[in-house]
Amino acid sequence: MYHVNYRRAGSVAEAADLLAEAEDGQLLAGGQTLIPTMKARLAAPSDLVDISGIEDLIGIREGDGAIEIGSMTPHAAVAASEVVRARIPGLAGLAAGIGDPAVRHRGTIGGSLANNDPAACYPAGVLALGATIVTNSREIAAEDFFLGLFATDLEEGEIIVAVRFPQPARSGYAKFPQPASRYPMAGVFAAETPSGIRVAVTGAGEDGVFRHEGLEAALAEDWSRAAAAAVEISPEGLASDIHGAADYRAALVSAMAAEAVARAASRKPKG
Amino acid sequence: MADVAMNVNGEAVRAELPDNTLLVDFLRETLGLTGTHVGCETSQCGACVVHLDGEAIKSCSVLAASVAGRAVTTIEGLADGDALHPMQAAFNAHHGLQCGFCTPGMIMAGVDMVRRYRASGEALDEAAIRHELEGNICRCTGYHNIVRAIDAAAKAM
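The joint structure predicted for all components is written out below.
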């Protein structure tokens, strides 16, 4: 790892100041992607501004018809939360399946969203559930937040403070992990939300996470495993790489969509 | 340089470290606690697993400065004097190791999973143990005995 100046922020305001002062500053959350990336010398910020210890950013709050998760809440806390398990079991199941147990103790929802890895799990949950990303300066709808591979609507110096999820009637997530990396080659999150049936796909798209209109229309007619499985998934726009061609990923999207719907019907969190 | 103070295995420790020092390097190089191993260095293998405030983490993917003020437990801090921790004793009794390189991480991960399952009330059966070991790799392919050891230790803890 190249030299870096480590700065610990005690508050969001202090973090914003430290970022503004730095020559080429970068926020540090749980570091489960950023630190390995820096070790591989694929990233070399001049300063790391650590926000993982800011208490206001950690925790899960139940609000009126919504659940708000602080951006520095680790995956393990979301997976184990009685509130999330009871009210958004699909999201608890998603969090329980990220990385491995040690990674889940450090990695955070805010870090995952800001990075927007095209094969990360959280973007699928956030987009399908119609969540709102709350930053230190504004609120961003999930539709407007994800802008392609590793790209988001976040501006320079903007900090995610929380993610607000409207209460879904049901939700489920299923992924097919690449056998070595364990990142999804296709992950599908299906939910019945206040704004309708929403289905988001991660791991498979050439431009990162996306909603699938065909699956949404079919499930709005008939919320069932069979209805999801019957939808024709076009390989157009899906990624082809050494792990699988676009038509193979299309088949995986179909299978994972059916599984996600089946899990949502059972209302039990699964990984 | 960062002035880093934390608690390691029950003792207060403090050092001036380059800001980019990884927790595992602080433990091994500065403190001489070489029981925590460095395997893949890419967060895959789990040889570097230690406990941070009682939770398993990969110490090769965490900066020492970012866990200042907190409590770290390594494999050296598990035994009670000469009496092995039940997880260590079980790995010995069930031959849960061959070359031993992955063993410290396996044992720390094992203790963490037993505690978590106990706290949640869920059953830590064989399938759950195998799933929980997703982030710990043994290249001697000794998983059967590792699983048996964790299962036995869970009953003894």
